[in-house]
Amino acid sequence: MQEVLSKINLSKKSQKAGLGSLVITDKDTYFLAISLGTITINQKNYIVISLQSPLGKDLFGKSVGEEISFNKATILEVY
Hints:
Number of strands: 5
Structural class: alpha+beta
Number of helices: 2
Low-confidence stretches: none
Helix content: 10-25%
C-alpha cells in the first residue's frame, strides 16, 4: 500500500480519472488510491478505493460528463 501511495502526485491536474484523482459523481465522491472504504472529513463522505477494484477499473480513464456503470452515476468533476 505504501508503494501505491508514494506514486500519488496530488499537485498534478488531470482531465481523466487515475491514481490520486478525486472523482465527484452525482451519487458519491471517490478518491482513487488504495482500498480504505468510506472516510469522513468535515462531514463529507469520501469513498477511498483501489484502481484494481471493479469500481476503480470503471472510473479509470473517465472524464467529466461520462457515466459509470455503478449506480449509473455521472462524473461531475475530476481533480
